[in-house]
Amino acid sequence: MALENGAWDYLEKPPAYDDVKLTLKRALQFRDNKMVSPTREGFKSDFIIGRSPVLKKCLDLVAKSARTDGNLFISGETGTGKDLIANAVHLNSERSGAPFIAVDCTNLPDTLVENLLFGHAKGAFTGAVDKNEGLIKQADKGTLFLDEIGDLSTAAQKSILRVLQTKTFRPLGMNKELSCDFRLISATNRDLQAMVKQRTFRKDLFYRLVTHHIHLPPLRERPDDIVLLADYYMEKICAQFGIRPKAMSDDFIDTLMVYDWKGNIRELISVLHAAVASGLNEPRLNPHHLPVALRIFSRKKTWEEQRPLERGIENGLGTDETGFPSLKDFRHLNESQYLDALVRLSGGHIEKACSMAGVSRSGLYHLLEKHNKKLNP
Ligand SMILES: Nc1ncnc2c1ncn2[C@@H]1O[C@H](COP(=O)(O)OP(=O)(O)OP(=O)(O)O)[C@@H](O)[C@H]1O
Fold first, then answer.
1. Quick count: other Cβ atoms within 10 Å of Cβ 271?
2. How far, in Å, are 185, 258, 299, 305 from residue 90 at the CA level?
3. Which of 31, 18, 48 minimizes the C-alpha distance to 245?
4. 54 in ligand 1 pocket by Cβ < 6 Å?
5. Does 270 contact ligand 1 (Cβ within 6 A)?
6. Response regulatory domain: which residues (predicted)?
7. Measured between alpha carbons, how far apart are the two ends of the chain, in Å?
8. How would residue 321 be classed by pLDDT, with cut points 50, 70 and 90?
9. Which of 190, 226, 266, when mutated, tests ligand 1's pocket best, judged by the most ligand atoms within 8 Å of its CB?
């Protein structure tokens, strides 16, 4: 009844910490998506997850670009969402009622490019028993998305440039030119500017492509988005498995946040799939459900980041000036290690812990909160 009357979610008593956290996170994300910047008013983007400042900036550009009709070029590492953004631009543009035609330019043989893009007339070559409408004609009034444009051969670059300049093309075996009206979006994870310098990509084509340019940041540069994406995809993946969404422990999330995500969001989705499969019968996922290579990477990185400080402490601060910790860091780490030992040795009993440490209850809770630790981890 409560849900029917507009409640966001409900929690069963006694509420588990993870459940409260998950529910609050979802509610905050929902609120954030509603409080979009004025540039994005009316822009449909609830399928694009993330609220890091860098992503928000990109989305403002995406929304602006959707309102215009100039060619858009999207760059970014593999798996950062170039395809997703191209779709969002089309969906939010005036061309959304017409087709969105995507072409993967990887490994397109020269012999096929013209036929694929421009189509052919009946009898144009042996085997052409029917006429074939090429992708450019299919994208008429809509959007043509050339994915991995950096992989186009020189010959194909020339053909595309001509279409962009004249807005006409000629199907194979036809003796007249046809006109076309499409918006071009292109994307690549290669450094197109460097390719122009090396003369492996045409400069004139490059300038035609980049009326608008959006660069999607890699996931490791927006770690806050990792948590939101993990929540979003955890729910989806669990729904695919036909199970309740699994909670993720703080350690699990920390491990994800430290990883470098070379395959970006695509890699995150596949890691979550693997984790769900590995912890299928458990309500909460822990780091041991993650692939070993990922855990080793994250552990090593955390260890290396902490190393100068820990080394300093282990050596009684030694004599080496390099990596000498600030007093604040030194105190913080000592305090944190002290709390770990206190929690362990007191067995998590508050009275015992207070008496061992000689602090008040509120003092101990304050310290635990400061270090993001719990008495009963
Ligand atoms: N911000 C996001 N929110 C939700 N899902 C995302 C987001 N960004 C990417 N994804 C998802 O990540 C996966 C990879 O995204 P996409 O295929 O768009 O990446 P790409 O940059 O085009 O990769 P490639 O260069 O390899 O073609 C897709 O499943 C996509 O839906």
1. 21
2. 9, 34, 41, 43
3. 18
4. no
5. no
6. 1-28
7. 35
8. low
9. 266
Query: Cα–Cα distance between 154 and 133 in angstroms, integer?
Result: 23
Instruction: Assess whether the C-beta atom of 49 lies below 6 angstroms from ligand 1.
Output: yes
- Nearest residue (CA) to ligand 1, atom 28: 266
Helix (H, G, I), strand (E, B) or coil at 59: helix
Whether the full predicted model's pTM is greater than 0.80, yes or no, is no
Residue 120: strand pairing partners: 132, 172
**pLDDT digits over 167-203, tens only?**
998 888 888 888 999 999 999 999 999 999 999 999 9
- With a 6 Å cutoff on the Cβ, whether 50 touches ligand 1 is yes
| Distance in angstroms (rounded) separating the CA atoms of residues 241 and 244 | 9
What CATH code is assigned to 218-300? 1.10.8.60
Determine the 3-state secondary structure of 262 from DSSP: coil
Relative to beta strand 183-188, strand 72-75 is: parallel
- The span from the CA of 304 to the CA of 328, in Å, is 19
Helices 154-166 & 110-118, crossing angle to 10 degrees?
20
| Domain boundaries defined on the chain | 41-120+131-215, 218-300, 326-377
CATH topology of domain 41-120+131-215: Rossmann fold (3.40.50)
Span from the CA of 191 to the centroid of ligand 1 (angstroms): 18
